[in-house]
Amino acid sequence: MKTSSFLYLAKFWLKTVLFKKKDPILGSVIITDRCNLKCKHCSVNNITSIMHPYSQIQKEMQTLYDMGARILFIYGGEPFLWKDGNLTIRDLVIEAKRMGFILVNIVTNGTFPINLPEADLILVSLDGDRERHNAIRGNTFDTIMENVNKATSDNICFYMAINQINKDAVSEVCKITKETNHVKAVSFNFHTPYPDTRKLLLTSEEKKSVCATISKLMDEGAPILNLKSAFPYLVNNSFPTPCYQSVIIENGKISVCGRCIDEPGLCDECGYFFVAEYTLLFKGNLKITFETLKTYLKFI
Known about the structure:
This protein is an alpha/beta fold. It has one domain (3-299): Aldolase class I (TIM Barrel), CATH 3.20.20.70. 38% of the residues lie in helices and 15% in strands. It is built from ten helices and eight strands. It has an eight-stranded mixed beta sheet, with helices on both faces. Helix 2 (54-67) packs parallel to helix 3 (89-99). The radius of gyration is 18 Å and the shape is globular.
């Protein structure tokens, strides 16, 4: 990370903590909900299957920037499916960089070739070893690993949503992360239970066991892009929600924190590690703050 970028983010943290401001720093844009997969834990794919036009996405990214967001995530559906004429996701990343976003990140299922060196981080979903990943996402494990190994830059982070199917595969995913070219780290979430996927939700005891496993792996040097200090809050869902420092825009609609905020009661069962980490960070939790510095400067 550039020194100027680090100083900007540090100033934002200081201003937020001291003056209890609720301005966003992280913005997400949904460019389509079209997806080539039907994953068992997903409730937001192929609802409209609309590819939003470049001009609209450009305006939405500018809206996020004008609100104060400087870290951008580009989501689908599957964002590598997105096209507008000859324009592809690369054009969106380049435009976001031109606007002034400090970090531009993509979240993908990894089933398309990964040739996007302009992105700061590409989060590729890997939901377990071959057997458990394929049980969740269909027969895609080998395709994803091939695409990751053929990627054109070292800007990949695996991204695992932990649920009842794959809760015992955390160690295996860390091993794969460590042994795979172009992959910096792995980032974990717990499954957040939309009504149609509630059976995949972990109990508090199961979350506690998983966090103990992740903590042990961290102590052993596994490249994990999460904050151990946030684990007790995640186990008991005792972190404050929503995260006001994060906003998401989809087809002109802006939501605080994430698109799941409109689901009644879902915030109380939030499994997003970043929500716990960011809300605690911007509440001024010093342990979280020091661990954020250590972790993010290492991997980003």
